[in-house]
Amino acid sequence: MTQPVMDIKDIELEFQVSRTLTDFVKQRPGRVVRALNGVSLQLNKGETLGVVGESGCGKSTLARCIVRLYEPKRGSIHFDGKDIFAAGAKADRSYNRRVQMMFQDPYSSLNPRMTTGQILSEALSVHNMRPKDEIATRVAELLDLVRLPQDAAGKLPHEFSGGQRQRIAIARALAVEPEVLIADELVSALDVSVQAQVVNLLLELQDRLNLTILFVAHDLRLVRHVSNRVAVIYLGRIVEVGDSETLFSNPSHPYSQALLSAAPSLDPDDKGSAIRLQGELPSPLNVPSGCPFHVRCRHATDFCKIEVPELRALPGRGEVACHHAEEVSEHA
Amino acid sequence: MSDTQPILEVENLCTTFTRGGVALPAVRDVSFNVGKGEVLGLVGESGSGKSVTLRSILGLSRRYGDVTGSVKWMGQDIAQMPERKLRHIRGRDIAMIFQEPMTSLNPLLTVGLQLTETLKAHTDMGRAARRDRAIEMLDHVGIPAAASRLNEYPHQFSGGMRQRVMIAIALAASPKLLLADEPTTALDVTIQAQILDLILSLADELEMGVILVTHDLGVVAQTCKKAAVMYAGRIVEQGDVRQVLRAPRHPYTVGLMRSVPQDVPPRSQLYTVPGTPPSLEALPQGCAFAPRCQGRTEGCLVARPPLATIAQGRSVACFNPVTDAQGAAA
């Protein structure tokens, strides 16, 4: 198979919640949000890996760890064989160039006081991508690449619609000729008809520039469409990862099954298998013991409450973190 | 249910806001009916006038804009009704769920108080009865340990729970019509499924009419009986949900349906509607969709197509509607 460009191993990340007055009075220690609890993932060259899950499950935190916005407490991320959090690695700016992130909100991720031209040329000059006199031509090329009109360079972000702004964000990321793109809910804020335009652009650019994409989104249909492989996250843990078509047509983990069946079908007569999850995502302040999903799981046994299931390969399927994966997948 | 007398009849509703001397027609000539226990889906992209339509029905936009047309509630015109009389209908007969569960609840009041407030205004229940009813409502919408949560504040509830509280408040006085403005957009799919199930079962139980505003075609398909598609402030297509989604006749509806990645080869290029929706300040003279439409003719740029009935309960505002076969192929 293809060589993984990015190897994420067992990363864990906690956020400290500041102690409240009651904590002081009751002499309780400050609480921690356990955002990531041992995530391992490989990103292969040229593929799109979709990451899905409910809000608060750690999708965005994972994306931010990969671009070094957060440093994990434990675990490692290797890019091209090098540990990106190793001593001295942070001084290596080339990683920032090779792995670029695109953000969810097109209204806050662009500096409102900079024109598109300035936004793009800043990226070019910071990483010394082009000599000074070639920057203008490169900006024009980039605008062309994301199909924005040439006069866009002189305009400010507020003059653009949401879809156009996300194109600027894509152009900014591509300016530095990255190898990996991290797309955190890139199109979630856009309307359906505009969403399709941006997704098409992303797919086309990926083929043309041989990009590797980590596509974080909560829209399951969209993730199915763009991804080669998909990872399902639940409470900071990957519960299932595998080939996109296999996972979507035959999910093996009870959570993936419930998540996929909850997505409303476009066919009024297809009411779906209607696996309804009870309750809500537990707070990451208080992650349940054992399998984090056991409190909402129909198949949970006493064993699930004690022992954390590891990701393991299932024949004909991807990797699943469930003690009862064999029986569960027969049910589906 | 469609043969019974509709409970709500909206006719030629227009809402125009003014900004800096420029008229912004947010809703233009919108007409539809809702029957007892009927669920109508109002679909469209952001800025198409869905929410303003709902607000105009309840008289919430007249302070900010100019509302014309008639809104008949049980035969009574409420569009021009004075605020004081309207207050007896609002909350009691017609209730509304707002889009943002995070900001629609008062953060300084307990959930119990916000729930009983509605009952105090619209029923003659005593204090204890109101409290019992509030607990019953929270139970009904699936909030565990309802009695103990009455004294909690909105920040102590999660997003899904707050939306349930909103629903409980709306339904406390047993309304006959529920206006739900994107009730599940801020929620995760698993919670969305629970909330929609809840609204549907209540509609069924209480014979309550529902207008569900959403931009998610899947939600419409799964919950609504009738669907109306809005574009730039007007209804462009209306009818039975199966017909509208399976054999759309308006090119915009066709475009919407086809841009959803379903039943297409993975990673293939998706169908897109070229361009973006027009701004309200500069609406095209003819059909608002004409600049983006592939089937436009000279006439589309000059005159505006009226919403014409093409079959029983089915209407389309287009001079050259897509034929059944083409629509079905989409």
Automatic annotation (TrEMBL), chain A:
<keyword id="KW-0813">Transport</keyword>
<feature type="domain" description="ABC transporter">
    <location>
        <begin position="19"/>
        <end position="260"/>
    </location>
</feature>
<dbReference type="GO" id="GO:0015833">
    <property type="term" value="P:peptide transport"/>
</dbReference>
<dbReference type="InterPro" id="IPR017871">
    <property type="entry name" value="ABC_transporter-like_CS"/>
</dbReference>
<dbReference type="GO" id="GO:0016887">
    <property type="term" value="F:ATP hydrolysis activity"/>
</dbReference>
<dbReference type="Pfam" id="PF08352">
    <property type="entry name" value="oligo_HPY"/>
</dbReference>
<keyword id="KW-0547">Nucleotide-binding</keyword>
<dbReference type="InterPro" id="IPR027417">
    <property type="entry name" value="P-loop_NTPase"/>
</dbReference>
<dbReference type="InterPro" id="IPR003439">
    <property type="entry name" value="ABC_transporter-like_ATP-bd"/>
</dbReference>
<dbReference type="InterPro" id="IPR013563">
    <property type="entry name" value="Oligopep_ABC_C"/>
</dbReference>
<dbReference type="InterPro" id="IPR003593">
    <property type="entry name" value="AAA+_ATPase"/>
</dbReference>
<dbReference type="GO" id="GO:0005524">
    <property type="term" value="F:ATP binding"/>
</dbReference>
<comment type="similarity">
    <text>Belongs to the ABC transporter superfamily.</text>
</comment>
<dbReference type="InterPro" id="IPR050319">
    <property type="entry name" value="ABC_transp_ATP-bind"/>
</dbReference>
<dbReference type="GO" id="GO:0005886">
    <property type="term" value="C:plasma membrane"/>
</dbReference>
<protein>
    <submittedName>
        <fullName>ATP-binding cassette domain-containing protein</fullName>
    </submittedName>
</protein>
<dbReference type="GO" id="GO:0055085">
    <property type="term" value="P:transmembrane transport"/>
</dbReference>
<dbReference type="Pfam" id="PF00005">
    <property type="entry name" value="ABC_tran"/>
</dbReference>
<keyword id="KW-0067">ATP-binding</keyword>
TrEMBL record, chain B:
<dbReference type="InterPro" id="IPR003593">
    <property type="entry name" value="AAA+_ATPase"/>
</dbReference>
<comment type="similarity">
    <text>Belongs to the ABC transporter superfamily.</text>
</comment>
<dbReference type="Pfam" id="PF08352">
    <property type="entry name" value="oligo_HPY"/>
</dbReference>
<keyword id="KW-0813">Transport</keyword>
<keyword id="KW-0472">Membrane</keyword>
<feature type="domain" description="ABC transporter">
    <location>
        <begin position="8"/>
        <end position="257"/>
    </location>
</feature>
<dbReference type="InterPro" id="IPR017871">
    <property type="entry name" value="ABC_transporter-like_CS"/>
</dbReference>
<dbReference type="GO" id="GO:0005886">
    <property type="term" value="C:plasma membrane"/>
</dbReference>
<dbReference type="GO" id="GO:0005524">
    <property type="term" value="F:ATP binding"/>
</dbReference>
<keyword id="KW-0547">Nucleotide-binding</keyword>
<dbReference type="Pfam" id="PF00005">
    <property type="entry name" value="ABC_tran"/>
</dbReference>
<keyword id="KW-0067">ATP-binding</keyword>
<dbReference type="GO" id="GO:0016887">
    <property type="term" value="F:ATP hydrolysis activity"/>
</dbReference>
<dbReference type="InterPro" id="IPR013563">
    <property type="entry name" value="Oligopep_ABC_C"/>
</dbReference>
<dbReference type="GO" id="GO:0055085">
    <property type="term" value="P:transmembrane transport"/>
</dbReference>
<dbReference type="GO" id="GO:0015833">
    <property type="term" value="P:peptide transport"/>
</dbReference>
<keyword id="KW-1003">Cell membrane</keyword>
<dbReference type="InterPro" id="IPR003439">
    <property type="entry name" value="ABC_transporter-like_ATP-bd"/>
</dbReference>
<dbReference type="InterPro" id="IPR050388">
    <property type="entry name" value="ABC_Ni/Peptide_Import"/>
</dbReference>
<protein>
    <submittedName>
        <fullName>ATP-binding cassette domain-containing protein</fullName>
    </submittedName>
</protein>
<dbReference type="InterPro" id="IPR027417">
    <property type="entry name" value="P-loop_NTPase"/>
</dbReference>
